[in-house]
Design a protein that fits this description.
The protein has six helices and 22 strands. By secondary structure, it is mainly beta. Strands 1, 5, 6, 10, 16, 17, 18, 19, 20 and 22 form a ten-stranded antiparallel beta sheet that branches.
Length: about 400
């Protein structure tokens, strides 16, 4: 991976992530790229990952509605979709979870290092009253972990508009998530293992945060770490890789406001909210509680963002990533072009089928007071037992040709 000397001089050493990129916290993040690009010239940035930013010397910033439209957005500035979306699938929660999902059985010990031990005992994952429940059910023997729920959809999806009606647990250092991952727990996709084949986080939130994080994760194979400490290789991220993630705990660029969190209840949670993801080539958007409009045929035709309440303190209720103005996405372009010239589309790795993943982790994120194998799972974070992620609906809509 080659960058000009001028741009390289402005790249600080990439810190290790404190949270985000849920598969493995040992990865080296490239979160410094966005701030470096803010002052880079168009000539410099055109060399980033072999993907061209030439033609725009403007500082990197969150794209406006007009920018989205110019980039070929699937949304008009009014919120109207450029084409109607028809319902393709509604998950059936009247059946046992296994009808729609693989209930995963493994620990987080070597993934996010959270306290969660994912089981399939009928308690951590269940359907009840046409709702799907994922529960932190009990402490493991010895107190070094907690039995919790995690599922992955049996069906894979490529592009579309996804709606999740969810009541999300909060406080007690829980880390619930609504996300998408290729194929299996290892994120194995067309371009290799995680992070080479990508990850889409519709919602990540921890403890008492009032916001959700919308995050894109990608990466490239390397000789061990990220540039300039390592070289890119076509190893499909095995065994070494560099992770490129839009999550940056140093600012609020990746966040959207949900609601103020009250940790006084025995098992605190947000109210039920509607989380919406629109995933199209070169662009992904997430909203919280938008106004959805339908035509006479029941097709989805408009997504209007909810106004930000005063409590949001400037945070929006939606977030968009456009490939052409997202350096963390562009950073893997050279890897895709060199290693998968006949296979990768311009928006790779987000040009592949992904499955829906839901889980409740406890601790494990950067700064968390409890991690796998520690007695703090049962002491400091012990009140997380009883926390539940409850979904009343998951629907997938596809653009009408």
């Amino acid at each position: 991976l080659k960058l000009s000397a001028a741009l390289a001089a402005r790249l600080p050493k990439a810190p290790r992530p404190t949270f985000g990129g849920r598969m493995c916290s040992r990865a080296i993040a490239v979160v410094a790229l966005a701030s470096a690009l803010a002052s880079a010239t168009a000539e410099d940035s055109s060399q980033l990952g072999g993907a061209s930013l030439r033609g725009s010397a403007e500082p990197f910033r969150s794209p406006s509605n007009q920018t989205l439209l110019a980039a070929g957005s699937s949304l008009l500035p009014s919120g109207a979709l450029v084409a109607p979306f028809a319902l393709a699938k509604r998950f059936d929660f009247s059946q046992p979870p296994e009808a729609e999902f693989d209930v995963e059985v493994h620990s987080d010990e070597f993934l996010t290092h959270s306290c969660s031990n994912y089981t399939n005992d009928g308690k951590t994952v269940r359907t009840e009253d046409n709702k799907l429940h994922l529960r932190v059910d009990s402490l493991c023997e010895g107190g070094g972990c907690m039995n919790s729920g995690r599922v992955m959809s049996r069906e894979s999806f490529k592009y579309g508009l996804f709606t999740f009606s969810a009541k999300v647990p909060k406080c007690n250092h829980v880390w619930p998530a609504l996300w998408l991952l290729p194929a299996d727990v290892n994120g194995e996709g067309n371009y290799g293992r995680w992070p080479c084949s990508g990850e889409i986080d519709v919602l990540e939130t921890v403890h008492d945060q009032s916001f959700g994080t919308f995050n894109l994760v990608s990466g490239y194979g390397s000789t061990g770490g990220c540039w300039p400490d390592a070289e890119m290789t076509c190893n499909k991220c095995e065994p070494e890789y560099c992770t490129s993630t839009t999550m940056d705990w140093r600012n609020d660029f990746d966040r959207y406001f949900v609601e103020e969190t009250n940790c006084d209840a025995e098992h605190p949670s947000w109210e039920e909210h509607l989380f919406v993801l629109n995933w199209q080539p070169d662009e992904l958007t997430t909203w919280i509680d938008p106004i959805l409009s339908y035509d006479a045929a029941g097709r989805l035709v408009s997504v209007e963002p909810k106004p930000s309440p005063e409590a949001a303190k400037g945070l929006k209720t939606w977030k968009t990533y456009v490939r052409q103005s997202t350096p963390e996405w562009l950073a893997v372009g050279n890897f895709m072009k060199e290693c998968f010239p006949e296979q990768a589309a311009a928006d790779a790795p987000f040009d592949d089928g992904f499955k829906i993943v839901l889980n409740v982790a406890v601790g494990g994120y950067g700064g968390a007071p409890c991690t796998w194998g520690s007695s703090t799972c049962s002491t400091t974070c012990g009140k997380a037992v009883g926390s539940e992620l409850i979904l009343s609906d998951i629907s997938v809509w596809q653009k009408v040709p």
